[in-house]
Amino acid sequence: MLFTPSLNQILSGGHPDRPKRPRLLWVGVWLLVACGAAPEPNLEKADSYTLAPRLSVVTLSPSATRFVLALGGKALLVGVDSASKDLPGTEHLPSVSLESVRPLAPDLIVGPKLDLEVVPSDSETGPGAAEYVEYAPHNLEDVFELCRTLGRRLVGHASATQFEREISRPLAAIGGASFGEARPRVLGVTGLDPMELAGGHSFATDFIEIAGGSSVTHGGENYRLAPDADTWQRLAPDLVLFVSKHTLTPVQRDAARRALPSEYPTLFFSFDPDGLWLTEFADAARRLRTQMKPQQGTP
Question: Which of 43, 46, 51, 212 sits at a 20 to 30 Å CA gap from 234?
């Protein structure tokens, strides 16, 4: 039986007495790490009954396209959105939108969360219409749940499970390396105009925890938080981590420092959650761990 400890258990190095069944939701899942003495499942046998007939797939966002490609589902793609055309492996595919996808007759459309105003009605799609699967992960748990639901439908149990392991095992090693060490209290900031803090259910807080910090917002259900006048004093971080998709220029860093409370040391860190796959997840966490290391002696 495959053993799947939770994110907190990976970070602490602890293991439950028995594995818990994951909730059947897009969120609230377990990070997969095949560890301990649990026997390896027979994945070839598993694929014999979990791999569905080959599907045709259209993706409507670069992050959804990256996910399908990283899984090994390149041959399944019959169309992608125009923004995905710069990704290696999509050069031969037509550019489509939700409105123009019908002639391709895909089995699945994988894309961002739709506004109610643009969701096609039954009369527009008709019998045999493609199934729309939302791809909008906000944290690592969402990514692993997508592996176990969408991933297994696309490439089968064995390939999706292997993909999940290749991401989770390096992260588990990095998280375990912090066991017993002092963990600085870190507050993630993801935006300045307006001021926006990383909520307890986000990629930023996942990386803080894996890299050896203790996110002061970890455990909350919101992805983002708007600080009020008392928030900073209440959270009292040892370190402010300013997270951005792109590396900030010196001018941008100076502006950020002026906008943030001066009494807290600030660390700037760049990563793009949409582009993090396989070793890149671990590389980003390892890089953050190295940068936070001097802060671990902070009282």
Answer: 212
